[in-house]
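Human: I would love a firmer grasp of how sequence relates to backbone shape in proteins. Could you go through the record with me and say what the backbone is doing? Here is the record:
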Amino acid sequence: MAGQSLLVVEDTAEIRELVATVLARAGFDVRAVGTGAACLAEVRRSAPDLVVLDLGLPDEDGTEVCRRLRAESGCYVLMLTARAEEVDLLVGLAVGADGYMAKPFSPRELVARVQAMLRRPRPAVEPADDAVVRLADLEVDEDTREVRVDGAVVDLTRTEFDLLAALAARPGRVLQRETLLREVWRTEWAGSLRLVEAHMSNLRRKLTAAGLQAAEIRTVRGVGYRLVA
């Protein structure tokens, strides 16, 4: 874990310095900037593994910065927000954030969340000889981390891919939301179940928009999800 590169994007100097110092002491290679423009420039220059992104930036909203990050980088994005209302959470996840933390937060929790996020991706089960799972018009390629519908690549975030890969590894089986939370987010905190639901909604929307018809992710009410043809 030590030595992985992080970028802290926070306009308030005191908070920016605090977050950068806490993460540096945990062994990460940390850079820090104060604007969305500087964030995008630094990501292009240094390709960090994870960006800690404040929503309230002075030059543009953090959700727009996240949207632009997703267009050109596969880094993890952990959003920091002082406005933790449901709409802000869902908007943030919709543009590709992998998780969020509401201010104020404890330094220990921040380090734990960053460490957990950087432990992904990992195989949910032992990989099969064929790394490509084919289910009707859907293909999930573990080696290239690509998802295809009728041969066309679907643009997914890392978290969305990990969710789909977990389901595709066990087609037809119901996976509980708690199971997905453990395998994708590496946590058992029940308060994070909304993350599963929000990311699953985004994943379904993207697959539907790509024309997926013969395979689908079904909700098993009160339990979880399963991928079927």
